[in-house]
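[job 4471] stage=fold_predict status=RUNNING
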Amino acid sequence: MEKGTSMNFIQSISNKRLIKKIAISTVAFTTLIIGSAVADNQISTDYHVYVNGERMGTVDNEQVITSLIDEKISKFEEQYKGKDLEFVPDDIVFVPEHVFRSNVNNTETIEKVESELQIVAKASAIVVDGEPVAYVKSQEDADEAIKQYKLKYVSEEDLTDLEAREKTPDTELPELKVGESRILDVSITEKVSFSDEKINPTDVLSVKEAVKLLEKGTLEEKKYKVQPGDVLGSIAVDHDLTMKEILKLNPKISEDELLQIDQEIHVTAFKPLLTVLVNMEQSKSVEIDYTIKTEEDSSMFKGDQKVKQEGKEGEKIVTSSITKSNGATVETKQLSEEIISEPVDKIVLKGTKVVPSRGTGQLTWPAVGGYISSHVGYRWGQMHKGIDIARPSDRTIKAADNGTVVSAGYDGGYGNKVVINHNNGLRTVYAHLSSISVSVGQTVSQGQKIGVMGSTGNSTGVHLHFEVYKNGNLQNPMDYLK
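[job 4471] inference complete, writing structure tokens
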């Protein structure tokens, strides 16, 4: 190839918008020619091909190499549109030699040259703590990726306001109004820098892909197919995840959900490459809880109480400094507070007056030990109205609370029965006694003996049948017994 031809090829590459031209040169090589050979026109020209100073082989014409390069350039430009490409190597030299007998190997030389040819992309690397973690097309894309990452944790309006304030750092900020907040600073914990690199074009990411990589630490989301015997906890352990992490990766699955065979579970442990710290301040109205105070009132019966004064919450304005790390609050400091209104205590009057015939409202166990052999509810096709207490350590039956005996005697299926009116809306019934120790009209005190446990009436064995009524309505004794 003549020098003019080489220059034309270089110009064709430039037209393809490659950043560096491949320098293809033809170096003159002088061979002493014997006159007779010249006369007979028996000599030919071989071309020795060198790539970056290393000999690749010999061809019979430059075109076989330049055509290969031209084809490669077209292919790569089509494949990697919009990327800033460079061809490597960038120095190909042809050395012509006039010879009596040609000794070329086009096929082998083309293969060697082709193995040396590759395309690289000029890219900007996002470097985190000294380690390149993502590559984008340009410095502008790198800056945009960092900005978009920050916008995951602050609004664009807040970020714009912050950038505007940073241009006038001496301007005093206005006082926050109640309910307002503002961003004071947005920073990245890690040391972030940028560097120019030449890499495989397939490694160049879009801004969106770079943000995803910075956020999750990976572009690939791995999935796991549920196997027989798997539970969510074991899958989490096998993939070095906590239960909280695997539930976050699979928001549609609950912790106790029954997994199905071959069900796909996300198991990628996302670990952000960058940490965005947002420092903000806010002013808000906060309720001040009121205190409940109790006052004794001797004019009220013991067990009774009423509200003397209703409580009311107070109000204060609190200004706080808040620090968030990737959206999670890590620190809150109260800067100031202003009391708008003090809380009003709630005052409750509690009766202390004790009348021997009036109950306290709190029932005590009516037997000496024992256990509940049957509860309130349907039994044997009919309603069982009370609880049965059996196997006491002592068969003494005791009044569950202060009151007046209103019934004491035999009553059909109840057998020997005692009814006590506690004069506070409650009545208690004691049945199946073997003997009764009190009489109608008698005032009894809580814990006083009123009879002996037995099996009179419709009874299957020695026990106490105990019922509770409030304002005439059957109650569950367990709601009143200590």
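[job 4471] summary: Residues 1-22, 29-39 have pLDDT under 50 and may be disordered.
[job 4471] exit 0
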